[in-house]
Amino acid sequence: MIDKPNSQVLKACTGLDGGVVGSGSTCGVVSGGAMGLAISHYDELMINGLPAQVGILSLIGDYVKWFENNFNSAICKDRSGVDFYKVMGQIRYLIPGDKVAKCMWHIRSAIRHLYSDHQKELPAVDIDSFDKEEEPIHCAVQVLRGIRENTGIGNDNLEHLAFIFDGGVGLQGGVCGALAGAIMSINLLLGLNISDTSYYQSVKDFTVGHINLLRNKPVQNPEPFNVGKQIVQQFKKEAGSMECKTITESRFSEWSDFQHHIKSSKKCEGLIALSIDEASRAIEMYKPMVT
Fold first, then answer.
1. Using CB atoms within 10 A of its CB, is residue 193 exposed (0-12), middle (13-18) or buried (19+)?
2. If DSSP states are collapsed to H, E and C, what string results for the chain?
3. CA 53 vs CA 57, 245, 267: distances in Å
4. Which of 32, 37, 83, 147 holds its CA 20 to 30 A away from the CA of 8?
């Protein structure tokens, strides 16, 4: 649709499946659509920088609200009623087929909506309202950069685009950007390279991954679901939630509100550090098995 190949970004986003490694947070149709909107405005982003980021966040916020209004929730577990970490949850998702069909319908509807959205001009932004002396903080970007510095695993395009997770995807309170950054970095190493993988291999990898969500044994053969599950569980243990609105106890009406919060929040600072440490440790542990 947008004719901008980004195979590594797509590979990183495979970890957002099922509400981030099947954990039921922000629906992958929402986070994937948000990433698609950002990619479609990539040229403007590279030319205009921060004003373009804020404009893209506005479009993404509108997309998330559209999704919530049409499908009741942007949170996977609320929308689908499925717990992918339980055997009966996975069975119910597949049988008799209504749950899978609903997801396919939502994907189809979202793509149709995004087709019109990606053609919109970015909202005008008053650049005089920004503090030009202070670098903005994007939680997912901070995590991705920290992990790259620690491990060498990273991608420039992904780091340019990961601001979309500010305030829980377009400031809408969904999955924490720090956690999203950690999961995407894991998937840069272990994720599914959809562009170069056959349909049957994709199905096999998908099946193995979902079986691994049901296991609690230590990882022996690393793949994105079993490694990502460990990151999610540790994050939830420390943060108490995966969603930005719960962690921060805030809903951000505009981007400047988010910046004010994240620059003063010790909790967010700690979760960024935790995400960097946990993902870096996993990557260093499993990198020799992959490369």
1. middle
2. CCCCCCHHHHHHHHHHCCCCCCCCCECHHHHHHHHHHHHHCHHHHHHHCHHHHHHHHHHHHHHHHHHHHHHCCCEHHHHHCCCCCCHHHHHHHHCCCHHHHHHHHHHHHHHHHHHHHCCCCCCCCCHHHCCCCCCCCCHHHHHHHHHHHHHCCCCHHHHHHHHHHCCCCCCCCCECHHHHHHHHHHHHHHCCCHHHCCHHHHHHHHHHHHHHCCCCCCCCCCCHHHHHHHHHHHHHHHHCCCEHHHHHCCCCCCHHHHHHHHCCCHHHHHHHHHHHHHHHHHHHHHHHHHC
3. 6, 21, 24
4. 83
pLDDT greater than 70 at residue 187: yes
Q: Kindly report the backbone phi and psi dihedral angles of residue 119, in degrees, each rounded to the nearest multiple of 5, phi listed first.
A: -90, -5
pLDDT at 132: 59
pTM of this structure = 0.94
Q: What percent of the chain has pLDDT over 90?
A: 77
Domain range annotation of the chain:
7-290
The span from the CA of 246 to the CA of 82, in Å, is 21
